[in-house]
Amino acid sequence: MYKELGELFGLLLIVAFGCTLLNYGVKFVNKEWGKKISANEFGKKTMKLLMTVFVRNHKFFGLLTALLLIAHFTVQFSQFGINLTGLLAAALIILQVTLGIYATRTHRPRKGVWFLTHRSIAVFIVLGIALHLLAPYVLNNALIKNTATTVQASQTTSNSTSFTKDDLAKYNGKNGNAAYVAYKNVVYDVSNNRQWVNGQHNGHSAGTDLTQAISASPHGDTVFKNLPVVGEYIN
């Protein structure tokens, strides 16, 4: 449930921020081609609607972005802790909103250093969000490739127990059974982990191989850092 809620807030955050960016696009289109577009009634009504929604309400979309950011960060932090790429994107968004509030309250003209900074930060936010979305598939996978061999070699050699798929399935955390999960051919004990209740965590079940699911998650294999190793998984 928390995973889906965090993803929903993240998606709405991107949509809200996209609406704030449309402020620049709509104003540019109006400046360059506004007269031609407004030459007919449909074009005139369309441009007026776009200006009303995205330009006049620009600051409200910015505030909504900040609120969704807080909600998304709260849910994700409670589940996975700090994510560096997410923290970077969040810091940029907060800086952008703060700068916008400052300009609104002080009635700053749309020019000068503050305005150039405001627009520049918007570009960096786009890059920051892109990095945050790509990180689970690029940065974490790179980290996994560099560390998985070392982790597996150091942890499994100290424990000679081997688990097949059927063996692992018995440790599902139900009916008094321990809760084990496999990742990269290493079996971990999550029985005493507060994130796993009755062998369940964010739609995943104990007694299974989570290699594919974890490799695509925002936190990567860092969740296994302090978990007890109980053996080797033979797939």
Explain this structure.
The chain is of the alpha+beta class and 235 residues long. The protein has eight helices and six strands; from the N terminus they run ααααααβαββββαβ. It has helices at residues 2-37, 41-55, 58-80, 84-106, 113-134, 139-156, 165-169, 211-215; strands spanning 162-163, 180-183, 186-189, 200-201, 204-205, 229-233. The strands form two sheets. Strands 1-6-3-2 form a four-stranded mixed beta sheet. A two-stranded antiparallel ribbon has the order 4-5. Residues 147-151 have low confidence and may be disordered.
Task: List the quaternary state of the chains.
Answer: single chain
Strand order of the largest sheet: 1-6-3-2
Contiguous runs where pLDDT drops below 50 for at least 5 residues: 147-151
Tell me the structural class: alpha+beta
Number of strands: 6
What is the H/E order?
HHHHHHEHEEEEHE
Q: Portion of residues in helices? A: 55-70%
Whole-number mean pLDDT: 84
List the helices and strands and how they pair.
Blueprint: H1 2-37, H2 41-55, H3 58-80, H4 84-106, H5 113-134, H6 139-156, E1 162-163, H7 165-169, E2 180-183, E3 186-189, E4 200-201, E5 204-205, H8 211-215, E6 229-233
Parallel strand pairs: 1-6
Antiparallel strand pairs: 2-3, 3-6, 4-5
Helix pairs in contact: 1-2, 1-3, 3-4, 4-5
